[in-house]
Amino acid sequence: MKQIAKISGIAYLMIFIAGFYANFAVLESLIISNNPSITTTNFINNHSELGNGLLGFALMLAFDVVLVWSLFGLTKSISKNLSYLTSFFRLLHVLFFGVALIKLLQVYQLTNRATSSVGLQQKVEALLIGFDTLWTVGLLFFGVHLIVLGYLALKSTYIPKALGVLLILAAIGYGIDGVAKSLMSNYLDYKSTFEVIVIMPSVIGEFSFTLWLLIKGFKKKPFKIQTI
After folding, report:
1. Is residue 104 a contact partner of residue 74, using CB atoms and an 8 Å limit?
2. For residues 198 and 146, which has the higher predicted lDDT (pLDDT)?
3. Under a CB-based contact definition with an 8 Å cutoff, are residues 161 and 207 in contact?
4. Domains of the chain: which residue ranges?
5. pLDDT digits (tens, 9 = 90+) for 26-41
6. Residues whose CB is less than 8 angstroms from the CB of residue 73 and which lie 6 or more positions away in sequence, other chains included
7. Cβ neighbours of residue 61 under 8 Å, at least 6 residues apart?
């Protein structure tokens, strides 16, 4: 079990590093909301940076697949059925984000040594909308995963209950942002507010869980599990 905790902690940490780099350092710096002309030009002029962002997202996706397996191993002693359920919803998130990433790969291919034109801008904009929509749906599934995972933590005798509460709060943040993005036509006007609603609880909850996994995985004392 120490090995599973160690693998899970490392995978979660890599997701944080790769995800924050790809999304905030690369994508957010290149995409200008409601301005496909500048966005397309940024992709053309910073094509290698876009490629690095894609690699970061691909790395994040790979470690997410690892967590589908490792978190099941960590939680199955609490409730095998609920552990299957939380793994299923995380897998749905992985599948949707994987398809979304294909859209971003198409943007990368289209803007390779290209010249910006109205037609290219329209294609890039449509692909980015598809990428964002698929990722949003995937994050809604991810939120459900966190709710079940948080509940498992609350029922556990070896995972701190505070982590369960934090994971559920993070899930609520993902849900609020996903629903708002889907239903609010003026979402961009409040984007920064919703980003805080998502980022703060997710960083606190998921990073706390990551630290706990790493501590449990790397400390010398055996990982004791008590089944209910």
Report:
1. no
2. 146
3. no
4. 2-218
5. 999 999 988 999 999 9
6. 1, 4
7. 94, 97, 98, 101
**Angstrom distance (rounded) from CA 110 to CA 204:** 38
DSSP 157: S
What are the φ and ψ backbone dihedral angles of 35, each rounded to 5 degrees? Answer: -140, 75
Half-sphere exposure of 192 (CA within 13 A, CB side): 1
Q: Which residues, 6 or more positions from 226, have their beta carbon under 8 angstroms from its beta carbon?
A: 157, 158
What average pLDDT score do residues 201-212 get?
Answer: 94
Confidence of residue 226 (pLDDT cuts 50, 70, 90): very low
Strands (E), 43-199: none
What is the spatial distance between Cα 12 and Cα 6, in angstroms, rounded to a whole number?
10
C-alpha to C-alpha distance for 82 and 79, rounded to whole angstroms: 5
Is the pLDDT confidence value at 228 over 60? no
pLDDT given at position 182? 85
Q: For residue range 144-158, what is the model confidence (pLDDT) as tens digits?
A: 999 999 999 999 999
Average pLDDT, integer, range 18-26? 96
Per DSSP, the residues of 82-113 read HHHHHHHHHHHHHHHHHHHHHHHHHHHHHTTT
Whole-number CA gyration radius for the chain: 19
**And the tokens for 227?**
């089944």
Residue with tokens 């790979």: 62
